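User: Hi! Is it possible to get a structure for several chains at once, not just one? Here's what I have:
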Amino acid sequence: MGGIYALVSIGLTLIFGVMNIINFAHGEFLMISMYFTFWAFHYFNFDPYLSIVVVVPALFLFGVLTQKIIIQRLVEAEHYTQIFVTVGLSIVMVNTVLFFWKADYRMIKTSYTMSVLHIGGMVISYPRLISFMVAIGITFLLFIFLKYTYLGKAIRATAQDNQGARLMGVNIRKVYLFTFALGSAIVGVAGAVLSPIYYAFPTVGLHFVLISFVVVVLGGLGNVTGAFWGGLIIGVIESFSGFFISPDLKEAIYFLIFILVLILKPSGLFGVIRK
Amino acid sequence: MKILIHKIIPHIPFILFFIFLAILLWLIENAFILHIFIMIFTSATLALAWNLIGGFGGQFSLGHAAFYGIGAYTSTLLFLHFGISPWLGMIIGGLLAGIASLLIGLPCFRLRGTYFCLATIAFGEVSRILVIYFKSITEGGVGISLQFQPGFANFMFKAKEPYAFIALGLMILAAFTSVVIERSRLGYFLIAIKENEDSARALGINTFACKMAAFFLSAFFTALIGSFFAQYILFIDPESEFSMALSMFITLPVMIGGIGTTLGPIIGSFMIAPLQEILSIFIGGQYQGLQNIIFGITLVLVVIFIPQGAFKWVQEIFKKDRIEG
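Assistant: Yes, the chains can be modeled jointly so their relative placement is included. Here is the combined structure:
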């Protein structure tokens, strides 16, 4: 699960790092992409992993629309406006899905859902392994993209200092638009690889977005590689505390870690303090 | 004496309004309309309570459901196990929630803006998980139903009227507290903190203590309503008492009515609560989620386009009157 957490969190942290907005509706983007994957499977018999080619552009487009219609207005706004508008957006999205498709749990059953890989004494389920590999792949690609392409550099410049970037001739509106869409697209990947192992239901996003808040804070808000490591750490903590303490308390444990990190080192485990 | 009168005069419309409401409740016999009024009063009290810290102090908590849940569980469990009257349980619940707010505030108030908001969400979730976990005390996710034994000491009534009057009383109490705070040193300090915390500190305001005080009061009132509602519907469970959705819905009337004012949350509740009840009657069963879509859209539109809320309209109407008169 660590890989999934990392993927969801990378999108969230990317958006925060560049635009300084925490998207409380981020989990609902995940939920929507899971539904996309599900319907693609249900109606067209698309393999969940294959459906990435459909889901990701769809989510990218959805991100563009959301940015154009709503988020654009929030960039310069006050904190509470940002919080409550994205919270409102999340309420709308959850209930729209609830309205159309009811609260049923939907799951994709594939031939490999239960298949496992034996390495030595370890048993690893294939879908989980794949989600982990995808997470590594996406993080790597994103890293390369941010480091070496013009747009990537523009994104990093805007994250550091948007006024400075604007003065250097970066079109920051475009950067914002692209960043938000990119963050949404990454969540689209997460939704697709999550689908074979997890149920899709209207409030599925809440569970994951809460975890990704933890992950993002752990890795340092706005820090993409931090979010990747944070996701893995939370995944490991979750399995271990579920095994050694109690499965019912595993959520409580990572929230406690979350609070401790917020208090002791709000810049995150890997972060330097950002303004 | 003269000063006192001067202090009261601006509140006369308020007081008349409350008296009018009380008479109205006394006259109404229809159970559904009474129910709507109860919902208005409780949501207004919750909104006023949230507004103390969120509106005046600018500290956006999305973990208020924790206090609501503490209130509901304290009074219910005390009554169930020890036979302590829910009236007393309500006060104890309020104080416990207050203590919890201090414990939460201690670490969280070192954080600002969005970070504070995230931390309160975490605390809200932790409390929900713990309530589900400690099954031996709280019955876990199944929830607790109270047996219906009408009586004043048991805080259970056959008719809806007593509930309505109690809810009105709670709302008046919350509104009174809100007005007093708004005009007190604490209120001005809180507004200073909202505007610019560093400047407030530089001016010698103990920002931490101010936020704690407001948070305590806010938690106290939230818990009172938690207890009240537990007695009203006689059933509690972790998912409805501690959910993050509840924390969000507490803030809805504040946002729509007008943040940072006393009148705003009340106006907001008078707009939202009846709509909510009527919608849930007419469309709730058939079209799941439709009413919440409407509320979500309203929230987004209001926050973007009229951030001061409906209160602004009311203010403008009064201003016009004055010019014409």
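The radius of gyration of chain A is 18 Å. Chain A touches chain B at residues 22, 70, 73-74, 79-85, 87-99, 102-103, 202, 206, 210, 213-214, 217, 246, 248-249, 251-252, 255-256, 258-259, 262-263, 266 (CB under 8 Å).

User: Great, thank you!
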